[in-house]
Amino acid sequence: MKDFRRLLKYLRPHIFTFVLATVAMIFAALFETATGALIVPIFDQAFNSGAAQKSETLFNLQNFIPQNNWLSAWGTISVLLLVFTIGGGIAEYFSSFLMAKIGQSAVLQLRQELYEHLLAQSANFFQKHRTNFLVARLVTSAAAIELAVSSNLRDVFRESVMLICFLGAAFYFNWRLMLGALIVAPLIGILTSKFSKSLRKLAEESFAGNKLLNDTAQETLANYPIVQAYRAEEREKSRFANVAKIIAGANLRSGKIAALSPPIISLIGIIAVVTLLFFGLREINTGRMEAAQFFAFLIFLFRSYDPMRKISRQHNQITQAFAAARDVWDVLDAGDALPEKPNAVELKPLQDKIELKNVSFNYLNEDKIIIKNLNLTIPKGAMVALVGESGGGKSSLIKLIQRLYDPTTGAILWDETDLRDAKILS
After folding, report:
1. Cα–Cα distance, 417 to 12 (Å, whole number)
2. What pLDDT, on a 0 to 100 scale, did the predictor assign at position 357?
3. Domain ranges of the chain
């Protein structure tokens, strides 16, 4: 829920578009429900040909069907089927397009925010986080969020509206039978919750494994000459294979749970429907409902389990997408930008000199001191050559003067202004 609330930040600017998409989903569901409701006049025409049978159905559609003229009746039913199908298709198109637009806009904003956040970080941040890890969060994880919004979330909303309409239609035809069918709803909810928790843990394990796999591959390939020099190919193969097996195991267990969830829920639903057949026949025999209405009731009840199954499947995929979103939140929350004082001053063009006073420096989480108690004065316009062996701190000194890092001790002065007292952008 915490991840979803955070995602809402990116969806909130598109609330009007979302409302339009929801309205389109409602119309699509209503057209689909009206199509199903035509089963009652179709049943009447098929089994009561020539009779003035007029069983009640949704939206009073029976009043549109001519009686005692089978040709006109079938013609009217055909036209209604065509109108409902076209109307439902148009509504479905707009709902899908609008939700895709929301998803693309949200992930664009997220990627821009993440990229701006990365550009604002200090060099220490990039020491702690590998480049391939950050790129994966920027591209792959953000794409998973876009899919969750534009496809998975859309399907959950659409199928939820469809489920409400189908259950409402079944309730309309016989509320007693519908109340009996709803007994299985809590059981389905409990099973869905358990499946989701298991999938969330496995998704997090899989994403962590993918990060480790990327790091392992990059480390090996970037240092392949060293691997060859020490004949460590077999060791690296084994290390890579062990990580890949962890990912495969997590994905396999996740696939097993995802495959198990829909059939179990469907089985529970079918058992409930079979039980209802007995009580439905009794309702017909007592005259409380027509055979055509009972048939429509069963049609809507059967169709309601399809949205349930799809919601369960989409919920599983959204759970996995939120595991990817958590990686993005972790990067956004991991700030290591150089501090800027509230009263920082704007650096002016150099007038006199750059001076280093007792500057010492070592990289984060490293004990080795790269620069120790350095005192250096560089007059304006002077050309200074830095000479020394590799690893002696030449590049580090340039980074300190550029203020990519702050010195561990000492100070760097720009015309008597400590760089730590200046605005970073200056």
Report:
1. 45
2. 85
3. 2-333, 353-421
- pLDDT interval class at 1 (50, 70, 90): low
Each residue's pLDDT tens digit, 380-398: 888 888 777 766 777 878 8
CATH of domain 2-333: 1.20.1560.10
Q: Which amino acid is at 125?
A: F
SS (H, E, C) the chain: CHHHHHHHHHHHHHHHHHHHHHHHHHHHHHHHHHHHHCHHHHHHHHHCCCCCCCCCCHHHHHHHCCCCCHHHHHHHHHHHHHHHHHHHHHHHHHHHHHHHHHHHHHHHHHHHHHHHHHHCCCHHHHHHCCHHHHHHHHHHHHHHHHHHHHHHHHHHHHHHHHHHHHHHHHHHHCHHHHHHHHHHHHHHHHHHHHHHHHHHHHHHHHHHHHHHHHHHHHHHHHCHHHHHHCCCHHHHHHHHHHHHHHHHHHHHHHHHHHHHHHHHHHHHHHHHHHHHHHHHHHHHHCCCCCHHHHHHHHHHHHHHHHHHHHHHHHHHHHHHHHHHHHHHHHHHHCCCCCCCCCCCECCCCCCCEEEEEEEEECCCCCCCCCEEEEEEEEECCCCCCCCCCCCCCHHHHHHHHCCCCCCCEEEEEECCEEHHHECCCC
Distances (CA, A) of 196 to 90, 91, 267, 312: 33, 30, 19, 9
**What is the average per-residue pLDDT within 83-93?**
94
pTM of structure: 0.63
Structure tokens at 57: 């159905």
d(CA 421, CA 426): 11
Interior CA angle at 259 toward 256 and 261, to 5°?
A: 105
DSSP 137: I
Helix or strand (DSSP H, E) at 355? strand 353-361
| 393 torsion bin: left (phi>0), alpha (psi -120 to 50), beta (else) | left
- Distance from C-alpha of 180 to C-alpha of 192, rounded to nearest angstrom: 20
CATH architecture of 353-421: 3-Layer(aba) Sandwich (3.40)
